[in-house]
Design a protein that fits this description.
Layout (H helix, E strand, L loop, with lengths): L28 H19 L5 H26 L4
Helix pairs in contact: 1-2
Length: about 80
Amino acid sequence: MSTQPSTPPPSSPGGYYGGGLPPVPVPNPELIVYVVALLVVGIVALAAETVDANTWVQFTLWTTAAYLVSRGLAKLRNVSER
């Protein structure tokens, strides 16, 4: 009865990959939607004559307020009462 010699598992590549840096966290989806909405309205404000800077600032104001309220509600949900 013959046994085959065991081979060691392949070693992982040395320290170049990742370089010891922590992984970059993925931003939450609300932030991505918020930034995309601001960019779209900003581009529309630049391209269209009916949407001016005041409209863009008002949109930014109300969108920021809604974003902050939504994040506050999301964090409030995670708070546990004692």
